[in-house]
């Protein structure tokens, strides 16, 4: 019996032996370079597959996606599967389900069988907790919090917490958020569902609520149903360093006293600049001194100007929503270094942009008719948040509840 094993092995064709390989899509990949990393070496197959337009979608879009293949030991591709870029939210899916596409390639006697298959993925819930030591972003990174979720957290609490100037060592946060995973891969990070932040001993809490029959009610609320949306964001930037405040100063351009009608924030060229409120773009162009700038008018007599930009993301007449990127920061016009000059106007008069909170009323609370739905729909994320941090969460009894809506910057 033992003597037959070598004979059987000798009879196996090299082409019958399969190698299972995986590779990550890289920046500047081509179909051929990806296939070669998957150990496909057959020249004819490389030519055929590289010429196919449907396979080029594998190497476009976000890098890092995993592609798997079965390849014979002589370098011939047998089949291949890879996720295509993009994730589509399913309309009407209350659970946040999404659809993603997989490209499937199979070698057949008749040629290549190439199909795009749509697959549904349900979101998973993730919990993270952290403590601030040096900066919020450092704490978020240490907690393994995705960058997009960290940015959402800042947006949610920006009406109450000044993340640039009021954070202290020992401040804590807990978050519950969605993540989309399939076949061992993280496809995308989703929405922040609930969060708590203790800033200087004051506890702020938020939950996401999207009523089934009232899209206008969608937003973040305190657990008691008060809206966390404010008329204005405190800043158009994700982070900043104040270099010149509002008021009298010596002009860095003309070296003489002038009244500075806004604030300067040092920021690298190309940083996204967001409009602080809903409004309409009335100017996007060049101005003497301002360089490239955007002016947005807002309801009730308010207006904002964003200056020294490098590029525009909007055009005159366009309606913009709070938090929408209107431009990229730059160093144009009368500027001594990369920064954003930001102005805030009330009925045509410039006022100190650092006092925006005084002009930012609360949003509408959860309507009485949706109160029971609000409590039911947010129960899971509120419960998970309460368990975050192993008893040392931002919801611990040692923190004092804050009067949300007041500014503590």
Notes on the protein architecture:
The chain is mainly beta and about 400 residues long. The protein folds into 3 domains: about 15-120, Nuclear Transport Factor 2, Chain: A; about 125-230 and about 365-400, Nuclear Transport Factor 2, Chain: A, CATH 3.10.450; about 240-360, Glucose Permease (Domain IIA) (Distorted Sandwich). The chain has 8 helices and 24 strands. The protein has helices at about 5-10, 30-35, 45-50, 55, 135-140, 145-155, 370-375, 380-385, and strands at about 20-25, 65-70, 75-85, 90, 100-110, 110-120, 125-130, 170-180, 185-200, 200-210, 220, 240-245, 245-250, 255-260, 265, 270-275, 280-285, 290-300, 300-310, 320, 325-330, 340-345, 350, 400. A hairpin with a 2-residue loop joins strand 22 (about 340-345) and strand 23. The termini are far apart. GO terms for molecular function: metal ion binding; metalloendopeptidase activity. One of its GO terms (cellular component) is cell envelope. Its main location: other. It comes from mine drainage metagenome.
